[in-house]
């Protein structure tokens, strides 16, 4: 099958969250299954710097009738799949992250930038590039939400040819690409696409909304989140639309790149280990305590967290529960950056509990690996979590995750109820209420289990035996692609 994979982030070049990891790992997994996958990504400076070979495959002056659009076909670093790069005067050749200015704040022309990405995907899908035309286009989040709209517009204007099937995956429904109505004039879509059956969304323009309405198939990154987004209380205003398309909405849990996340062969760690011999994990714990100025003690339970510091990650719950974590004899290591109030809160905790609480504000790939390996447990107290990757790394690194029971966290962690521990299937801890008290209570429970001398090795063994790779989920996407391709005959 020929699959085009347009994305706005790609690990390790441009990353704000788990989407970048998925963009790197899922195409690799599909390619390993024998499929012809090509990525499409904006030609950000960090991506251009990683090019190992490149040739132009598309160049015309017709980006929505405006500026030039250039598409190159490139090889990137060690990535085994080819990559189309989209360039257009000034849209992507900028410093900073993919969406924000260096000092923070979204680029004001983000609608145009990601309309361009969606347009390029549709253009390759409709006309092909360099003789290659995909059977299916798999877009991700609002940044590619307009892709099915452009494809529909091309089909209307063009010859009668079968278009590729389309899949849009929601990585986080909270980010919707919602803009002022005046943006419509910049998009180059036919006038009737401005309405409710097109891009109109609560009086403005909704990129994600358009994609959810027009893609053949909609998926999200766990079955529980697929259910949550169809409920009014957790549907971010799009639950009605998603209920209306229920037969086309599904959830496929993420995997991780098991070559990047492998405690037996991880270059960031001071020692390596595997399930049969955890001696190296004890070395990683001692190293982490030293690196982060925590009291050196092999017996104290160390909890780690690596996250964007945003409301939906529930880290304010952890702020409120840390005093009891410390009182219970635990240590905490946190790595993250984000909302200033959360950053300040964790700084204060580190100052209040020296040797017990260690905080690193910033982004640090190596430290994130050392926390996974050196902690005894990884905390993911999210209010909402479409899938979550850090709890999957934790399973693989023998650090039983403690998570809130929501979205993908509910689907990927088996709670340490006595029967599940006895059966050898429990892999971590879950709590329900999004309150500091509920988190504190579960931390106390986990610390008790940590010290009982029996439970922890069972949790670690079950977690490390869990298959967190992409194999099964890549197969599930292939089935979904088949369905999307099948839908085309009867749709648009
Ligand atoms: P989200 O995409 O919502 O942020 P995920 O759990 O899917 O959540 O993915 C987060 C990814 O970003 C993981 O790979 C995690 O290790 C990484 N990450 C988050 N914050 C940091 C940080 N400060 N330093 C290094 N890696 C981080
Ligand atoms: C989003 C979600 C996260 C998910 C990631 C990759 O950023 O917040 O839960 O794991 O996308 O799908």
Write the layout of secondary structure elements.
Elements: E1 2-6, H1 18-32, E2 36-42, H2 45-48, E3 51-60, E4 69-76, E5 83-87, H3 110-127, E6 136-140, H4 147-157, E7 165-170, E8 178-179, E9 200-201, E10 204-206, H5 207-214, E11 217-220, H6 223-228, H7 239-244, E12 249-251, H8 279-291, E13 302-309, H9 315-327, E14 331-338, H10 340-352, E15 357-361, H11 365-374, E16 377-380, H12 390-396, E17 402-404, H13 407-412, H14 418-423, E18 429-431, H15 436-451, H16 455-465, H17 471-490
Helix pairs in contact: 3-4, 8-11, 9-10, 9-15
Bound molecules: adenosine-5'-diphosphate (ADP) and alpha-D-glucopyranose (GLC).
- Low-confidence runs: none
CATH topology term of the largest domain? Rossmann fold
CATH class of the largest domain: Alpha Beta
What is the correct CATH architecture of the largest domain? Answer: 3-Layer(aba) Sandwich
Radius of gyration: 23 Å
Distance from N terminus to C terminus (CA atoms, Å) equals 21 Å
Total domain modules: 2
Provide mean pLDDT, rounded.
96
CATH-wise, what's the superfamily of the largest domain? Glycogen Phosphorylase B
Total of helices: 17
Strand order of the largest sheet: 3-4-5-2-1-6-7-11-12
Per the principal axes of the C-alpha atoms, what is the gross shape? elongated
Bound molecules: adenosine-5'-diphosphate, alpha-D-glucopyranose
Portion in strands: 15-25%
């Amino acid at each position: 099958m020929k699959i085009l994979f347009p994305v706005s982030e790609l690990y390790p070049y441009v990353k704000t969250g788990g989407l970048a990891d998925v963009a790197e790992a899922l195409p690799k997994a599909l390619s390993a299954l024998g499929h012809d996958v090509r990525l499409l990504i904006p030609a950000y400076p960090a991506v251009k710097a990683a090019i190992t070979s490149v040739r132009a495959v598309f160049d015309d002056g017709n980006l929505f009738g405006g500026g030039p659009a250039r598409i190159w076909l490139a090889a990137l670093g060690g990535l085994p799949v080819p990559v189309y790069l989209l360039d257009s005067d000034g849209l992507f050749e900028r410093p900073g992250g993919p969406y924000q200015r260096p000092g923070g704040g979204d680029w004001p022309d983000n609608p145009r930038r990601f309309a361009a990405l969606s347009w390029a995907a549709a253009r390759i899908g409709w006309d092909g590039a360099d003789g290659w035309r995909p059977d299916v286009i798999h877009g991700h989040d609002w940044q590619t939400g307009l892709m099915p709209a452009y494809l529909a517009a091309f089909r209307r204007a063009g010859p009668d040819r079968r278009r590729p099937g389309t899949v849009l995956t929601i990585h986080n429904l909270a980010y919707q690409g919602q803009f002022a109505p005046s943006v419509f004039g910049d998009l180059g879509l036919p006038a009737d696409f401005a309405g409710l059956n097109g891009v109109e969304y609560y009086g403005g323009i909704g990129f994600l909304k358009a994609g959810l309405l027009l893609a053949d198939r909609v998926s999200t990154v766990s079955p529980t989140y697929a259910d949550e987004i169809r409920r009014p209380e957790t549907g971010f205003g799009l639950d009605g639309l998603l209920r209306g398309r229920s037969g086309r909405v599904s959830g496929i849990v993420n995997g991780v790149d098991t070559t990047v996340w492998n405690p037996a062969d991880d270059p960031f760690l001071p020692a390596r280990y595997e399930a049969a011999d955890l001696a190296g994990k004890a070395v990683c714990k001692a190293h982490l305590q030293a690196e982060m100025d925590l009291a050196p003690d092999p017996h104290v339970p160390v909890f780690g967290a690596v996250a964007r510091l945003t409301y939906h990650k529930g880290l304010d719950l952890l702020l409120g529960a840390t005093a009891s974590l410390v009182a219970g004899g635990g240590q905490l290591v946190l790595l993250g950056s984000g909302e200033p109030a959360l950053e300040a809160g964790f700084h204060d905790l580190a100052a209040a509990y020296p040797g017990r609480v260690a905080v690193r504000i910033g982004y640090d790939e190596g430290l994130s690996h050392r926390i996974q390996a050196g902690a005894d447990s990884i905390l993911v107290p999210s209010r909402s979590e479409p899938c979550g990757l850090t709890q999957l790394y934790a399973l693989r690194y023998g650090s039983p995750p403690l998570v809130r029971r929501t979205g993908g966290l509910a689907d990927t962690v088996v709670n340490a109820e006595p029967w599940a521990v006895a059966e050898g299937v429990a892999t971590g801890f879950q709590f329900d209420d999004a309150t500091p008290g509920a988190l504190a209570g579960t931390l106390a429970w986990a610390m008790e289990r940590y010290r009982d001398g029996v439970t922890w090795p069972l949790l670690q063994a079950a977690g490390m035996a869990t298959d967190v790779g992409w194999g099964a989920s890549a197969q599930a996407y292939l089935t979904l692609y088949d369905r999307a391709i099948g839908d085309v005959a009867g749709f648009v």
